[in-house]
Amino acid sequence: MTCGKRLFNVRGEFQRFYGAAGRSARGTMTEGGKKPSLDELDAKIRAAKDHAGLSQRQKLGKDRGNGDQARGLSFAIRLGTELVAALMIGVGIGYFLDRWLETGPWFMIAFFFLGAASGIMNVYRAALGYDSAVGYHPADGEEGDKDESDPNRR
Amino acid sequence: MAGPLAQFEIKAIGGEAGVSLAEQSPYVFTNSALWMVITVAAITIFMVLGMRKREMVPGAWQSMAEASYEFISGMIRDNAGDEGRRFFPFIFSLFMFVLFGNLMGLLPYSFTFTSHIIVTAVMAVFVFVGVTLVGIAKHGLHFFSFFVPSGVPAFMIPIMVPIEIISYLSRPVSMSIRLFANMMAGHTMMKVFAGFIVPLGFFGVAPLIMDVALTGFEVLVAFLQAYVFTVLTCLYLNDALHLH
């Protein structure tokens, strides 16, 4: 099934931390220095994990082509939600301003267009891989890390 | 046979018999509330009993508890920076609640409270208001410079500011719709296919296979949506803390 691919990042990350969990617990617990062999074990695990992390990253790069369909579908759903959500908020604001000020349909019409504009802007930003809404800035963090942390990419 | 949407019906538990939900007192204990309680209890058992032994080399259960801790702590570090660490308890609770709610909703005869928009919307609004308050507390009135995009000509600003504000307000909406729609769509689809299995006789094998595949898919979706919900919280927190 193609949907498995989409989750690959998440599972990979989970597994990475699954490995890391043992290490940190051990790190705090060996302070008494009861079993020096654990330190060796620790170093070994760390080396193996670094290696695994590297190969996983390479695999992720290779994976990119295959899971395109599933990723594309989920991305399309995301874009649709962004567009509609902003429009809903815009029309909602307009509707309640009209009810409050008794100004006929005018606020609703104005805010319909503002909502549509902000919906399109959200989609534009999401499509460019910018951070979710507000401000014309790319997401923080280095480029390599972004693919793992950014939901826009799924 | 129950329709595909019957699984989302809210029912009172222990209320007066024969009285519809709307006519009961507004503080009825429902199946939705029951499954939230069960979820919280399951998380508590999972974390507390899992960590009780505190073994130096963790067993499977302890590893899982530690892995979830490390997973969220890494997520916060990557997406919200070190300042975001203060919010670990909240974000961890949110993630576990959504994840366990999604996963336990897959059990037969259970109820998926995350498939109701009122539940996801409350969580999203809570995040939204909290993040906004954090931003205002940290930056004071400077926080509102957030709504003035950089590099925009002065005459465009009166138009851009309302657009940015609407865009900001649409965050909880899209966040809650995404979680609830995914859960509801998946469960409805499973039920629709399941409804075909028996009436089709021998050919019911086809929807049965489909349902098996969908069950696996739903587990992935349950995890992914909990992850997305939490990552978005971290990203919004990052926005509020650092204002770009």
Structure in a nutshell:
With 154 residues, chain A is mostly helical. Chain A contains 6 helices and no strands.
Describe the protein:
The complex is a heterodimer of chains A (154) and B (244). Chain A is mostly helical and 154 residues long. Chain A folds into two domains: 61 residues; 86 residues, no CATH class. Chain A contains six helices and no strands. With 244 residues, chain B is mainly alpha-helical. Chain B has one domain. In chain B, helix 2 crosses helix 3 and helix 3 packs antiparallel against helix 6. The mean pLDDT of chain B is 88. Chains A and B meet through helix 1, helix 2, helix 4, helix 5 and helix 6 of A and helix 2, helix 5 and helix 6 of B.
Write the layout of secondary structure elements.
The complex is a heterodimer of chains A (154) and B (244).
Chain A: H1 3-6, H2 8-29, H3 37-63, H4 68-101, H5 106-127, H6 143-149
Helix pairs in contact in A: 2-3, 4-5
Chain B: H1 31-50, H2 60-80, H3 88-104, H4 117-139, H5 157-197, H6 205-242
Q: Number of folding domains of chain B?
A: 1
Q: What fraction strand of chain B? A: under 5%
Radius of gyration of chain A: 24 Å
Following the backbone from N to C, one meets helices and strands of chain B in this order, namely HHHHHH
Low-confidence stretches of chain A: 1-8, 20-33, 59-66, 132-154
Average pLDDT taken over every residue of chain B: 88
Largest interface: A-B, 55 and 53 residues
* Share of residues in strands of chain A: under 5%
Largest sheet entry of chain A: none
Helix content of chain A: over 70%
Secondary structure: number of strands of chain B? 0
* Shape by Cα distribution of chain B: globular
Number of helices of chain B: 6
Q: What's the multimeric state?
A: heterodimer
Number of domains of chain A: 2
For the sheet with most strands of chain B, the description reads: none
